[in-house]
Amino acid sequence: MPSYTLVVMTNAKDGRDDEFNDWYSNRHIQDVLAIDGFVSAKRFRLADTQRGTTPSPYKYLALYQIETSNLAGTLAELGARSGTEKAPISDAMDQQRFAYVYEVIK
Description:
This protein is an alpha+beta fold. It has two helices and four strands.
């Protein structure tokens, strides 16, 4: 089965990191993993020490592993659930974000 990684970079709204991280780690990841095709997720926080000097516009990174033969359908379901009772979005999250799907190179 084809394998993909959804890369999502986000920020919390100013002063709301604790609320954002609680929602993301304790609600959002479970909501996404309930969608067929999503098999795992891992979150990261930008480290204080970096290799380069260019500042990152994003503080948080989430990597979602997807295994599906219907990527368009899996992503459509994610979009359909986003912001609903099945997958509410916290207002502590800054709405500007980066999200791309990468395919495994064999």
